[in-house]
Structure prediction request, 534 residues.
Amino acid sequence: CYRNHANLPSLLRLYSNYVLSHHCFLLDNSLTLNKLLREAPDSIQVLLEQWRDRQVLLAGNYARQDGIGHEIERLEEESRILEKRILQQLPSIAAARQFVTWTDVQKQLKAGETAIEFVQFRYHNNKLESTDSVFICALLIRPDEAHPRFIPLFEKKELESLLNRHTERGAGFANYLYAPVAQMPSEKSLYEMIWQPLEKALTGVKTVFFSPVGLLHRLNLNAVAIPRTTEKLSDRYRLISLGSTRQLVAAPSTIVAATAASPNATVIGGIRYDMDSTAIRKANETILQKRGLEDLPFNQADSSRSNPEWKFLPWTAVEALSVAEILKANGIQVQNRQGYAATEAFFKSLGLPGGEPSPRILHVATHGYFFPDPRQQLPLKQAPPTRDEPVYKVSKHPMIRSGLILAGANQVWINGKSFDDVEDGVLTAYEISQLDLSNTELVVLSACETGLGDIDGNEGVYGLQRAFKIAGAKYLIMSLWQVPDYATQELMTLFYALWLEDKMTIPDAFHAAQKQLRKKFPQPSDWAGFVLVE
Prediction:
């Protein structure tokens, strides 16, 4: 009925303003709060330290197999009380949060540019009754039009069918998903679902700023094939992914560019995942003394169900050395952590609130993990998972079910117990979200499936992506499926060379690197697994 509505232009303006203010609303509030906390006066710092202490303890308890019940409830309640006291003394988040309208976004667009906010909503029939159908649509803003365009795209279940066609997220999954034409008679290709309905509205457009929603977070739009050609969307458009297109209006970042005076980087790769308590303790000793930290024990966790161990990734050692050499050649001071030195305690020390600034470049080549919420897949009246399952699989907290694997992690991953008082080596997204990476311009997660997580329609992905955003990082490169490590090593080497030596911007260098890699490895599974998010 919207097509024939007499007040359609006014409705589209109002709806666009609503979407811009509510897309990733909670994440935006978290970022605003973190900014206020970093600038908080000394009178609040004592309360802030107490609150951070609770967050660290909560992170440890969420990640413990027996971390349920009174201890977590007590810490959560204490955190809420401290948060309330802190917020009472801080300026209003609402006042600090920048309100952006669609016309503000439009003013930032140049000729040949377009902004798209993807949206999803549940369909209501003519009787205004809710149905099971969820539709994905686009709100498209051009610099030369009087109001946004509303363009229906596809039904959510169509994309779900494509994404669920393969249980393993490897080469077969990627090459099936990004095929130029649908592989099943009952399906549409990604191009037919997402881009074909937009084509008429994109006449003359070369650059598209877009904000994904829902399952679109699981896609690399640059890799979408254009039927009856050998082209991908990246051959016709410069596609830039944003958390929300209101970022086009946001104040410029205060992060110093990586090529400025005294830049620094931390490169992690070639990690040993088996447990060598002596080597890990030695690696942690200086860090813990310097920071005044204590290891959070995992030794009370218990699991009677074993998991396959994390295997050493030889190409990550090559990648880390190659990246480090490129960075050093461009005047960047590099701290390189490999083997047993790549500990969880070391990683946390990089962004300890109140400590030294985080590195401007953080490159991590390792395994990543993500487990979907098993409670959403339970038959009616079936009991929830028991404590016999590893906590990383069954936690109710989505940012525990997503994380990175660091030195010594096999001990807890396989047996459910860490060694003595050494951190377990499983760095959860929740723990990352408690760090201060506001000085970090670029995080590269050169690991499998680091872009995955629980998806909330309006809030985006609850996983590593959200964790690093909350921590304050500006750009994030992450993966959508199990990417071959030889191809990953080559992509990263190309990217850094184009960015630092050829002086491209981070987005342009990343997309150019993928195009070069595509010439050598034409299958999407080899070159399209990584995405860049600002």
Summary: Confidence is low (pLDDT under 50) at residues 252-261, 290-306, 378-387. The radius of gyration is 23 Å. The first helix runs from residue 8 to 22. The CA atoms of residues 65 and 301 lie 5 Å apart.
